Amino acid sequence: MLLSGLTTSLDVLALETWAPGTARQVLAAEPANVPAHAASGARRPVLRLASVSLSFGGLAALRDVDLDVAEGEIRAVIGPNGAGKSSLLNVVSGLYRPDQGEVWLGDHAFRQVPTARLARHGVARTFQNLALFKGLSVFDNVLMGLAHRVRVGFLRQLVGTPLARRIEAENRAAAEQVIGFLHLADMSDRIAGTLPYGLQKRVELARALVARPKLLLLDEPFAGVTLSEKQELAQHVRNARDRYGTTIVLIEHDIGIVMELSDHIAVLDYGRKIADGPPAEIRTNQAVIDAYLGVAHEDETELAI
Ligand SMILES: Nc1ncnc2c1ncn2[C@@H]1O[C@H](COP(=O)(O)OP(=O)(O)OP(=O)(O)O)[C@@H](O)[C@H]1O
């Protein structure tokens, strides 16, 4: 418990923190161009993809994709099966290194985002298949969302000290806060694996939010949950953006919920971005309609454009 608890106020110890305006640029494998928003003085996007291409053998999963996601936005990335959605999310979270292009997290430009330092760059993600510790309580699962902030060696030195106790108290308070915010307080002591699937998804959201990420990546957050759970979860996602100002990027097949929830939607088809705009525009975009009608999956055409 102490180990998972020892993290919070050690913002001081974070190796690198997200500090727009003051952050140094790191790890640009090649010299990064100054992005247009910086040159113009416009507010910088929280996430930017610049000409990102990725291929597997001869197969192009992403082709020259640009994407700007503004602070506080809920941005969905949709597209038919195999369009490149997961590839895009995996590039943003550093699991894949693009063949070409850059990913910008605030002021930091990367050819390959360093997965191990994702949290320190203010990014959290959830996974399509739940990645909870099923044998731990809801509370302990949420605490784990803070476990990245302190180095283990330092943490050992701290055990038993007043600082350690203070950090643990702060972590527990942060976990309680987000658990309450997501209406999970009644089941805080329950073993996560015993909860209905929709609630487990909510616990995963709580764990991703506890460190107050600037950017939250949601990988098919509504897959496998019931209709009413979907509505609840969507409301929680919206509340998280409203309360914490979290910028959210989600990939999702349920177009109905995407249309309701998103401020903007980017559409991929065969690895190319074919549209990007507010839901009303996407709904009537002919290239999008053609892309969806070109595949014979009912769940995708349901949204039907
Ligand atoms: N690790 C990999 N190795 C080889 N090919 C891959 C790999 N990951 C993705 N691909 C291929 O890249 C293309 C894009 O796949 P991706 O999973 O990104 O699409 P998607 O839009 O997320 O699809 P889905 O909706 O079915 O999950 C597909 O043709 C896929 O087969």
TrEMBL record:
Q: One GO MF term, please?
A: ATP binding
Q: Which UniProt keywords apply?
A: ATP-binding, Nucleotide-binding, Transport
Pfam families for this protein? ABC_tran, BCA_ABC_TP_C
Domain ABC transporter, by residue range, is 47-295
For this protein, the record's SUPFAM superfamilies field holds: P-loop containing nucleoside triphosphate hydrolases
Q: Which PROSITE patterns match?
A: ABC_TRANSPORTER_2
Job description of the protein: Involved in beta-(1-->2)glucan export. Transmembrane domains (TMD) form a pore in the inner membrane and the ATP-binding domain (NBD) is responsible for energy generation.
UniProt protein name = ABC transporter ATP-binding protein
Upper lineage:
Bacteria, Pseudomonadati, Pseudomonadota, Alphaproteobacteria, Hyphomicrobiales
